[in-house]
Amino acid sequence: MNEDQKIIELKKKINHEDFRRQEREIKEQKRQQKFAAPVKRKRKLNVVNFLFTVFLMYFAYTAFSQYQMLSDLNKEIDQKMLVKAEVEKKVNELKDDVAKMSNEEALLELVEKIARDQYKMVKPNETIYIDKNKNDNKLIRGIGFEKDLQD
């Protein structure tokens, strides 16, 4: 029995050593896998990535639409500034006319100018010569003013 016990103990030692050797090999393989180039895995589309993508698309759309809106508003502001400049010019002309009305001589000149330009009036015994050969003469047709001829 003594020999049988020795045989059993030797078998246990051998099994134990094999187990330890296999364990060391497995650990070594795991260590090598860590240092080896990572294997690319297919990434699964998860909820967080999907929500982030949706948010990013919404942000881009909103930014683009606001940029267009600002562009349109800037164009509208430029147009209003042009209209404002024209109105200010007209206001200055009217202020000059009002200033002229305080002086009687200037008032008469202004009335004469309006009568000649807008109502095509002439002074007594004044002769107007119109070239009928000109087709572009708007005064002949009665639809223009003298300032139109200057242009």
How would you summarize this macromolecular structure in one to three sentences?
With 151 residues, this protein is an all-alpha fold. The chain contains 5 helices and no strands. Helices cover 75% and strands 0% of the residues.
Written description of the protein model:
The protein has 151 residues and is an all-alpha fold. It folds into 3 domains: 41 residues; 43 residues; 49 residues, no CATH class. The radius of gyration is 51 Å and the shape is rod-shaped. It comes from Sedimentibacter saalensis. This is Cell division protein FtsB. Keywords: Cell cycle, Cell division, Coiled coil, Membrane, Transmembrane, Transmembrane helix. It holds the Pfam family DivIC.
Q: Write down the Rg.
A: 51 Å
Strand content: under 5%
H/E series: HHHHH
Query: Can you tell me the overall shape?
Result: rod-shaped
The largest pleated sheet is described as: none
Helix content: over 70%
Ends apart, CA distance between termini = 136 Å
Number of domains: 3
Unreliable residue stretches: none
Q: Which structural class fits the helix and strand makeup?
A: mainly alpha
Organism: Sedimentibacter saalensis
Keywords: Cell cycle, Cell division, Coiled coil, Membrane, Transmembrane, Transmembrane helix
Coiled coil: 70-104
Transmembrane segments: 47-64
